[in-house]
Amino acid sequence: MDSNFLYLVGAGLAAIGCLGGGIGIGAAASGACQAIARQPEQQGKIMTFFILGAALAEATSIYALVVALMIFFTH
User: What residue ranges do the domains of the chain occupy?
Assistant: First the structure.
């Protein structure tokens, strides 16, 4: 088995980590919509926590993407 092939497989597996951010943001958006529907007067506070959670979930996806790109382009 060619070693370059293994590097490409590793980069692909590292890129799978990007899915977690999308799933996390989707779940957070769903929860925020439900919470706002139940308590509209708390919209500002809910949106603050939603944006913070979305930023953290997106950061983990970016880390996974950076690792995948580093594996892909270093070999």
Answer: 30-75
**CA dist 71 to 7, 8, 11, 65, Å?**
7, 8, 6, 10
Residue-by-residue pLDDT tens, the chain, 75 positions: 777 888 888 888 888 888 888 898 999 999 999 999 999 999 999 999 999 999 988 998 999 889 988 988 887
**Local structure of 39: helix, strand or coil:** coil
The CATH fold of domain 30-75 = F1FO ATP Synthase (1.20.20)
The whole-model pTM stands at 0.72
